[in-house]
Amino acid sequence: MTESHIEQNAVTVVIPCRDEAEALPGVLAAIPAEYHALVVDNGSTDDTAAVARAHGATVVGEERPGYGAAVQAGITAAGTEFVAVLDGDGSMDPAELPGLVELVRAGADLAVGRRRPTEAGIWPWHARLGNQVIAHRLRSTYGLPVHDIAAMRVARRATMLSLGPLHQRSGYPLALLVGAAGAGWRVVERDIAYRPRAGGTSKVSGSALGTLRATKDFLAVLR
Ligand SMILES: Nc1nc2c(ncn2[C@@H]2O[C@H](COP(=O)(O)OP(=O)(O)O)[C@@H](O)[C@H]2O)c(=O)[nH]1
Ligand SMILES: [Mg+2]
Questions:
Q1: Ranges for the Glycosyltransferase 2-like domain (predicted)?
Q2: Per the count of CB atoms within 10 A, which of 85, 89, 111, 216 is most buried?
Q3: Where are the domains of the chain?
Q4: Closest ligand 1 atom number to CA of residue 65
Q5: What is the rounded distance in angstroms from the CA atom of residue 56 to the CA atom of residue 54?
Q6: How large a percentage of the chain has pLDDT more than 70?
Q7: In the CATH scheme, what is the code of domain 3-222?
Q8: Are strands 80-85 and 153-156 parallel, antiparallel or unpaired?
Q9: How far, in Å, is the centroid of ligand 2 from the Cα of 86?
Q10: pLDDT, tens digit (0-9, with 9 covering 90-100), for 66-118
Q11: What is the spatial order of strands in the sheet that 36-41 belongs to?
């Protein structure tokens, strides 16, 4: 995609998905009508790709496994000035994306969501604790005004790509924030709702093993 083919002012919502056929229809239905939905599938064994297409999304395949590989493939494939990233599990509301897009239009380089659980018990304690430790480090060492690792985020496509390739697995959100701090980006955080996933199963923080793997990825980034 050359820069001259980028649709100015438009927004692509990049949705990394592994086995999200159950939750995807609700997520895609809630995306603002004028936004493009782009599902990046790597390694799904369910109908994720077919369901995504049936509900109007463009589907991009990615050979390399991992959340970060999927997100970066989606941003590269996006043909719009702005890119948004959110999960395909229904835990975040796409209706909150325009608020983040506005922050970028108003001058932020990166607008990120701070997840606020809508119910007790939906954010496992080990994931929440790890998140708090990392967010503290991001504030103290990197000077970023964040209280979460930016699971939902909006930026200009060119801004995102300017950092070059980042972590390919769950270290990606953190690598992006560390890169943003290093590049002197203006990062703005605002509250977003965090809901139970709408179906399917967690690949990351839903199990102690998943959290352990993610923590390993995180530490590799912060080292
Ligand atoms: N394409 C792709 N998506 C992934 C991968 N791992 C996780 N995801 C997606 O990333 C999002 C967050 O993962 P999730 O399982 O909800 O993690 P949790 O919220 O920590 O439990 C979901 O949309 C997943 O489908 C992966 O390896 N490839
Ligand atoms: Mg989730």
A1: 12-147
A2: 85
A3: 3-222
A4: 27
A5: 6
A6: 98
A7: 3.90.550.10
A8: antiparallel
A9: 10
A10: 999 999 999 999 999 999 999 999 999 999 999 999 999 999 999 999 999 99
A11: 58-61, 36-41, 7-17, 80-85, 153-156, 110-117, 187-194
